[in-house]
Amino acid sequence: MAGSMSEADLIADLQRSLHDAASVFNAPADADWKRMLATALTAMQAKRPRTLLGQVSLVADEPVYPVPASDFAVYKTHVWGARPPKPWAQGYPGALPRVSAVQSGGAWQLVFDPAPTWAHINAHGSAFKFWYFGRHSVGATAGDATLADADRPLLLLRAQAEAMRELSMRNINKPTQLRDGYSGTPRNSTPAALYRELLAEWEAAR
């Protein structure tokens, strides 16, 4: 599908691809379309993982640290203490703490168990660098998108599938006449069947 990776252009192409069925989604400020696009962007995290590097400053005996990255999705691993001293070496600080990511009040935090000690910080430094999977997003301009231009059709395909899922919930026992999002050929089928078909196509794509 032609167009840029801006949110407005993506929504416009998604609307055109659904033809008459697009009239069902009429929430103010394109809220329906933004919701479907957001679901597609979340799904694209698995299809096109985005690995990023974050960092927090450690304090002795402090176990919890807010994640500074606004696009944080999943904690991956860390590079802190990559070359620990041997247990028999002088000044051995002890085993590294276990690190996990938890949500609290809608915000992500890194939790150390046990809390890093002064010996850990002295041996490995206070800069805790970690890898994480970041969320995909789009914005007002094409340059705001985190996905490559080549992934645009795949993103829209997943959004089309989400539209069919929502239609199937609204019209659970009522067949809906739709047009194919690619060829424009009329098709008579239930949205649930089209959802399965589009989702299978998206999952099979590389």
List keywords for this structure.
206 residues; 5 helices; 33% helix; 2 domains; 3-stranded antiparallel β-sheet; 8 strands; alpha+beta
If you had to describe this structure to a student in words, what would you say it looks like?
- The protein contains five helices and eight strands, in the order ααβββββαβαββα.
- The chain is α+β, with helices and mostly antiparallel strands and 206 residues long.
- The protein has two domains: 7-48 and 138-204, no CATH class; 51-134.
- The longest helix has 19 residues, at 152-170.
- It is elongated, with a radius of gyration of 23 Å.
Tell me the distance between the termini: 17 Å
| Physical arrangement of strands within the biggest beta sheet | 1-6-3
- Please state the average pLDDT score: 89
| Main beta sheet | 3 strands, antiparallel
Tally of separate helices: 5
Derived structural class? alpha+beta
List the domain count as a whole number. 2
Total count of strands: 8
The helical percent reads 25-40%
What is the helix/strand order? HHEEEEEHEHEEH
Q: Compute the gyration radius: what is it?
A: 23 Å
